[in-house]
Specification:
109 residues, mainly beta, Jelly Rolls
Length: 109
Amino acid sequence: MLRLARGHSTARFVITAVPHDTWVVRISAPASADFEVNVLKSDGERLTLLETTHQREACAITGTRLHCFLRFAIGANQTPGPWTVIATKRTGPAIAMRIQITFYHRGSE
């Protein structure tokens, strides 16, 4: 669980990306939250995963929760190693959110 303080707030955590063909990102947060999620890869490249929770093609509200699902296709990125996931909330109350990144090899889905 990732916690972001009241107002403008940023939280980070590190994951280990394994060699992969595709990967998916799942995010769950309070429906009222507006934030962005980026990744800083081991080779220094910065990827924007979610610019805003208002991206309705990636996010939907169910009751009081916001759920986002993003899929990155074959060849989109194959950089293994440590990645820093960065979530930035623009404003609003403190929130607790969950970000899950899953890597897949071709044929393992």
